Inverse folding.
């Protein structure tokens, strides 16, 4: 059985993408799930573009994960038993592809090949999504009041998970008759996509689609907190990504003061920090539009019990390849790596690097015992 998973925030984009993906195999079926108010799940099944099943189910505890576990997975199992070779699963808006893939791996009784994880998106809306302060519930993308993710957080998470982004005019364009494809906003959004998801194939209406390129291990490695992936080369355009590394621990107070300046006007900030007040802890930093947060991801590999670099094995899901590649003879994998993506006019690489370098401990401070730092950086800090 072959499966393709489609995630989105826009039902119009999702349905158009799922319909196209349903034509990539001869014996395909397309399933669209929606979680409505009152824990009501609507399921529609199409074959050859024609609806042949429409059912509703009321869940006892209606949530996105329950919808996937209790309806999406059993439906995929049932359709495979009916003899379909390929099932396209159009997930409810706001459901992460990674969560769906994990539930499919766990819940299916028969072997399944995940051909692709696809995000369907109107690129003209991307910039607004990144900077939207409202939650998915407040914006009407999900029916769950407790869903406090922003649209930017959802999309950045999906960019790391998927192998393909299908760019399709969304519901707003459909309702207003706005022909966005090829517009300035559309072109700018596609360019931003290239910076935020440099690994992904960006597929338009007339572009070829490459089936069978989903890789669990690669997706897990990209999504590990603190991991940095940037475009292979920098080209002149509306957006750019600035990457900088610092080999000394950061002074917690100076970094706290610098963080708002680093984050301002930045669409996406990500990386890992070596902070003097917590020298053995690998701290991940992420900023998506108006939100910035820090989190502990455990000890540095150099501070593990054996204190040595371990062989990298890219076939193992979630392996810390960065620790292997960035290993330093004196401080191992410890260090600060930060990438910031934003509009080119706002991304002054020299200023960013000087600001981050000034946060490093001086030679005199390096001679002090780490225990003197009584100004720990709060991991819950947010802007």
């Amino acid at each position: 059985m072959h499966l393709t998973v489609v995630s989105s925030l826009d039902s119009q984009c999702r349905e158009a993408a799922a319909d196209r993906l349903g034509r990539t195999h001869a014996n395909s079926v397309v399933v669209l799930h929606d979680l409505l108010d009152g824990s009501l799940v609507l399921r529609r099944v199409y074959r050859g573009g024609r609806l042949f099943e429409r059912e509703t189910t009321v869940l006892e505890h209606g949530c996105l994960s329950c919808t996937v576990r209790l309806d999406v997975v059993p439906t995929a199992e049932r359709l495979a038993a009916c003899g379909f070779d390929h099932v396209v699963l159009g997930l409810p808006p706001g459901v992460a592809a990674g969560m769906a893939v994990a539930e499919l791996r766990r819940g299916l009784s028969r072997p399944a090949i995940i051909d692709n994880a696809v995000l369907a998106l109107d690129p003209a809306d991307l910039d607004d999504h990144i900077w939207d302060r409202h939650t998915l519930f407040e914006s009407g993308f999900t029916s769950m009041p407790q869903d406090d993710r922003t649209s930017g957080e959802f999309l950045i998470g999906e960019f790391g998970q998927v192998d393909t982004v299908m760019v399709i005019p969304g519901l707003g364009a459909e309702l207003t008759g706005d022909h966005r494809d090829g517009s300035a906003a559309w072109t700018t959004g596609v360019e931003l996509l290239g910076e935020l998801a440099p690994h992904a194939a960006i597929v338009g209406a007339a572009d070829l689609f490459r089936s069978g390129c989903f890789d669990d291990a690669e997706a897990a490695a990209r999504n590990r907190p603190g991991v940095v992936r940037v475009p292979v080369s920098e080209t002149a355009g509306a957006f750019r990504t600035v990457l900088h590394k610092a080999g000394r621990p950061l002074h917690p107070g100076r970094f706290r003061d610098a963080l708002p300046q680093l984050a301002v006007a930045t669409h996406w900030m990500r990386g890992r920090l070596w902070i003097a007040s917590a020298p053995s802890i690998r701290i991940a930093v992420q900023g998506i539009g108006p939100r910035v947060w820090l989190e502990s991801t455990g000890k540095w590999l150099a501070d593990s019990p054996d204190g040595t670099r371990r062989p990298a094995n890219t076939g193992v899901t979630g392996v810390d390849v960065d620790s292997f590649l960035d290993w330093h003879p004196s401080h191992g994998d410890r260090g600060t790596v930060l990438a910031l993506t934003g509009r080119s006019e706002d991304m002054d690489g020299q200023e960013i690097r000087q600001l981050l370098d000034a946060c490093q401990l001086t030679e005199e401070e390096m001679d002090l015992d780490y225990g003197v730092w009584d100004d720990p950086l709060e991991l819950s800090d947010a802007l």
